[in-house]
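Homework help board

Subject: predicted structure for assignment chain

Our instructor gave us this sequence and asked us to write out the predicted structure in token form, then describe one feature. I got the tokens but I'm not sure how to describe them. Can anyone check?
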Amino acid sequence: MKLLKVKDVTAKLGISRGKAYQMIRDGVIPSVNIDGCIRVPERFLDDMIYQQLLEAAGKDKTRVERINNLFGDRAERRDN
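My token output:
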């Protein structure tokens, strides 16, 4: 499992450092604290993005299919 530093999360999401810490503090971005160092499991971050995209797509089958194609293995895992 790959753990991301907060600066990696900010780059991946295109958000500020302060916003990333706020989202972590609020529980929006799942994180772990390893001896005072905040890390975000990349898989959790990707799953969070995937879930939000699916919610935004709603019942639009074309959009859902594109999202599933983009995320590949996550879509297969959710079907099982």
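Reply (TA_rk): Your tokens look well-formed. For the description, you could write something like this. The chain has one domain: 3-79. That's the kind of observation they're looking for.
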